[in-house]
Write a structure and sequence with these properties.
The protein has 354 residues and is α/β, with parallel strands linked by helices. The protein has one domain (8-352): TIM Barrel, CATH 3.20.20.210. It is 48% helix and 13% strand. The protein is built from 16 helices and eleven strands. The chain has a seven-stranded parallel beta sheet. Strands 2-3 form a two-stranded antiparallel ribbon. Strand 6 (237-238) and strand 7 (241-242) form a beta hairpin. The longest helix is centred in the middle third of the chain and has 25 residues, at 175-199. Bound molecules: coproporphyrinogen III (CP3). The site of coproporphyrinogen III (CP3) has 22 residues, from strand 3.
Length: 354
Amino acid sequence: MTSLKNDIFLRALQRQRTPYTPVWMMRQAGRYLPEYRESRKNAGSFMSLCQSPDFATEVTLQPLDRYPLDAAILFSDILTIPDAMGLGLYFEEGEGPKFERTLREESDILKLAVPDIGTDLKYVTDAVSQIRRALDGRVPLIGFSGSPWTLATYMVEGRGGTDFLTIKQMAYARPDLLHHILDITAQTVTAYLNAQIAAGAQAVMIFDSWGGALSHHAYQEFSLQYMKKIVSGLTKENEDRPVPSIVFTKGGGLWLEAQADTGANALGLDWTVSLGEARKRVGSKVALQGNMDPAILLSTPEAVEKEVARILADYGIGSGHVFNLGHGITQFTPPENAEAMIKAVHAISSKYHL
Ligand code: CP3
């Protein structure tokens, strides 16, 4: 493998010294880019983009060809796992992801099994290898998965972003059934992330997009506990380098201390917390990634630069910060505002790295 030309993102995740603050954006390859919309049209659908290593490579590289980003993220989706488990993922225009079958009956739940990653999810690891070859050491490649809790919300509810009443009812009435789903899913996520690492992913991120919907105690029991298990089962080194991990619970700002104890190298933060305060709370245990509100990218380059300066000052002097959005970039973002953000991070942050 070619050596990495820019490893600043990997070093920041390990809280090592860097000359500036590295930056990437959640959903950086997506609908706000006209070239992405063109590729999706050519592929026919979002899932065909994910399932073709050629297309996945093409769209992963699109934001890197436009902007001086410090990391690439595999183009795929967290819902590849429930799809591989046989639930039938589909997308309806303008409505987000849905499943043909849901996991609610005891008999279906007890039949749930870890899919064969090497066959059912081979299209993902093939994409990772091909993207690594295409990157040729430009920047590190991030692999990812959903958290067991977040994947289970889709499997039980059949769709995302609901009030989660069906899965919460299961959590409180039949915790044994939900724990069975979470356990099988955690085993799957561990094997899936390790397969991505073996194929060339140089860091991994676990997206717990719906962890923030849980109560204080339920978060520990149904989400955090499983992420901790996954982190402890991850391959820690590959190609003679550490493979750092990032845990991101959207809406999880109240539980940062507990997240810092998972063993992950870094925590993702949404925009509801102050980076400076979060840094004091987690101390030297983890690096922090975040946390600009993606809605700021709907404003003007001047407003974006002001917010970048504020966030960098909030984190303060020293390493251990990866600049990112607090959640995915919206499809309505003018591409020039994303560029203003990335350039401002590089220009302003060097004074915090002495
Ligand atoms: O960050 C990246 O650029 C990598 C690719 C990536 C996608 N999804 C591509 C995608 C990643 C890391 C994800 C993760 C993902 N997918 C999460 C966790 C992060 C988060 O947003 O909380 C979740 C919950 C999903 C499930 C999912 N997939 C949803 C809710 C949607 C609809 C979103 C929307 O904006 O309509 C998707 C589809 C999806 N995944 C798109 C992209 C680029 C849009 C698809 C399209 O219409 O082209």
